[in-house]
Amino acid sequence: MRPILGLIAGLTFGLGLILSGMADPAKVLNFLDIFGVWDPSLAFVMGGASITAFVGYRLVWRQKTPIVGTRFDLPKDAEIDTPLLTGAAIFGIGWGLGGFCPGPAWTALAMGSAGILMFLPAMLIGIVLGGAAKSLSIFKVKGA
Amino acid sequence: MGPVVTTEFTPWLSLFGGALIGLSAVMVMGLFGKIAGITGITKGLTGLLPGAGGPDDRGWRLSFLLGLIASPVVVLLATGSFPQQTVPENLPGMAIAGLLVGVGTALGSGCTSGHGVCGIARLSPRSLVAVSVFVAAAIVTTTLIRHVF
Questions:
Q1: Do B107 and A87 touch (CB under 8 A)?
Q2: Residue B64 domain-assigned?
Q3: pLDDT value, residue B43
């Protein structure tokens, strides 16, 4: 049952990315190009998604436990630390360069463009490297 | 990274598509009790990294990714063509972009979905800072590439 529900959630997410335009790197890069051919559509994607999730989360949190899970597992980290800031900056540079963030990278795979066939394997290698970098001493919080 | 293609402003379609993304995030929270972060879900695929989750989470995460991958095929079956898409053609540039996105999202513990959609919905200060930083860095990068270099 859990894999089928996961598939439905993934399809919903993917269709949302496609319909909203977020799956098209041209639209993403034009959103970021505020001094050029600016296309503000993506602000509406983020608005529609965040507001829906804001309301929906508060409805589902009224339950004691998730429907097919044991507990609501929310990130406990509160500190705005070096890995967060460095990682977000590095991610932003890559996003502004290629126009893909991780979700749209997956939805682009089946369309098989040369660009995504370069981007996606590199992203997977990057996730492994980034995970390793996170455990390096320069990123350890003092006293942690 | 390639020629600039103009795109049409689509507020209603983008708002509706965004609502579907939010609905999916609510499904993942209501069903599994988890944040619908694509970085975290992708880590679950590798199963090698801390934060990948236990075996309980591997199954739904894998099928969630299969759903993401299958979504353009659903569009193809429904409409007869793949969705509109213009991917940059500078291949070394795309490899570098992919590497940066992977490293950055793993190091920063999230991307547009985890920090963006889910973090904003939780009003998490960490996520609000992360979103500000990555959107600013992306705007600076695109602006430099298109208007300076």
A1: yes
A2: yes
A3: 84
